[in-house]
Design brief:
304 residues; alpha/beta; Protocatechuate 3,4-Dioxygenase, subunit A; five-stranded mixed β-sheet; 17% strand; globular; binds benzoic acid; binds fe (iii) ion
């Protein structure tokens, strides 16, 4: 039967036509997407010119993407979607663990394997040298031996070393394993915050919204061990002026820590310290990685 299509009936019409979707999860995702997209257009009373502007914007986002630049992820980050997806991922864990935070665009697999106590600083640096240490435990506080701890960060000027394409040669990244009690420790420099890439359409959006575009100073981690849920996270330095207004919403209270000038427990004496403990939840069969984002160096390798 022919139905009258208007600004309200169009939503059911679109959803009914998709009812034949054989993949149940795809159906479950697409139906609310259409419902909320239509509700948004009705609420904003969107005009054809505005919708075309939106389509132009999304086209520009796509055109900005390369093997080394993912503008759609940056859009997801700046709209709070990546952080929301991380929170939903954390909620699915059966035990409490360290909260997730954004992987960001500067993660590279194959960072150099290092020994506990090594420095990830491989170039001359004017930064404040610190010892970064802590434990990886299970949800009861028992140390997880030989857990994998990947770490990467910007330098004291807020820049990531991206000059070399081979991750094993990049500064300020390393791959460690915990000792028999779950401890890790390494030397690095205190990072500075930085502005997200602003030379694309996402930057135009940020400027149109009069947002500052900064991420507070942080250090990224991927921590995991067999039988545990991998956690992709970051620690954030208290005192950074943007710690409570991160442009990509990666900061949550439990991930904020201090640089401690006098720490009697630091494993390397006479250095300021940053201490951060990780708690890993046991994995369930359904667990998948929390890595929202891809490592461009792997994409390039695969396509080579
Ligand atoms: C970062 O942490 O490096 C980052 C995360 C999201 C967007 C841009 C940068
Ligand atoms: Fe980062």
């Amino acid at each position: 039967m022919l139905r009258a299509i208007d600004e309200n009936t169009i939503t059911d019409a679109a959803i009914e036509q998709m009812a034949s979707t054989p993949n149940p999860r795809l159906k479950q995702i697409m139906e609310p997407l259409v419902r909320h997209l239509h509700a948004w257009a009705r609420e904003a009373d969107l005009t054809p010119e505005e919708w075309l502007e939106g389509i132009k914007f999304l086209t520009a986002v796509g055109q900005k993407c390369t093997a080394y630049r993912q503008e759609f992820i940056l859009l997801s980050d700046t709209l709070g979607m990546s952080s929301l997806i991380n929170s939903l991922h954390d909620k699915r864990a059966t035990e409490a663990g360290t909260k997730s935070s954004l992987v960001g665009p500067f993660y590279r697999q194959d960072s150099p394997p290092m020994k506990l106590g090594d420095s990830i600083v491989t170039k001359p640096s004017k930064g404040l040298e610190v010892v970064l240490y802590g434990r990886v435990t299970d949800s009861t506080g028992k140390g997880v031996a030989n857990a994998s701890v990947e770490v990467w960060q910007p330098d004291e000027t807020g820049n990531y070393d991206l000059q070399k394409h081979d991750p094993s040669e990049m500064d300020l990244r390393g791959h460690f394993h915990t000792d028999s009690d779950g401890r890790y420790y390494l030397r690095t420099v205190a990072p500075l915050g930085y502005m997200i890439p602003m030379d694309g359409p996402v930057g135009d959006m940020i400027r149109a919204q009069k947002r500052h575009g900064y991420r507070p100073a942080h250090i990224h981690f991927i921590v995991g061990a067999p039988g545990y849920r991998e956690v992709v996270t970051a620690l954030y330095l208290a005192g950074d002026e943007h710690v409570d207004s991160d442009t990509v919403f990666g900061v949550t209270e439990s991930l904020v820590t201090n640089v401690n000038q006098k720490d009697p427990n630091a494993p390397i004496p006479n250095l300021p310290s940053i201490k951060f403990d990780f708690k890993l939840a046991h994995a369930t069969a359904k667990d998948m990685t929390g890595r929202v984002g891809a490592d461009p160096s792997q994409i390039v390798k695969a396509g080579a």
